[in-house]
Specification:
Blueprint (H helix, E strand, L loop, with lengths): L1 H42 L8 H14 L1
Length: 66
């Protein structure tokens, strides 16, 4: 019986780990959706957009490394 109890305990631990991972994945997905909505809203506000000069410098740096 002791071996069976250990197997049951191990199985229960694996189930709990799987549940935790599933909950974490769901939470990350929801947080990602919230982040995406916030990002889309902020991208519509000119204050949060880079200046044309900053944009050009950024693009030049990208070209340098590609």
């Amino acid at each position: 019986m002791s071996g069976n109890n250990q197997a049951d305990k191990k199985l229960q631990e694996l189930k709990e780990e799987r549940r935790i991972k599933e909950v974490m994945a769901r939470f990350a997905e929801l947080e990602g959706r919230v982040f995406l909505k916030e990002n889309q809203a902020l991208s519509q506000i000119p204050f949060y957009q880079p200046s044309e000069t900053s944009r050009k410098i950024f693009l030049q740096r990208i070209k340098y490394f590609t």
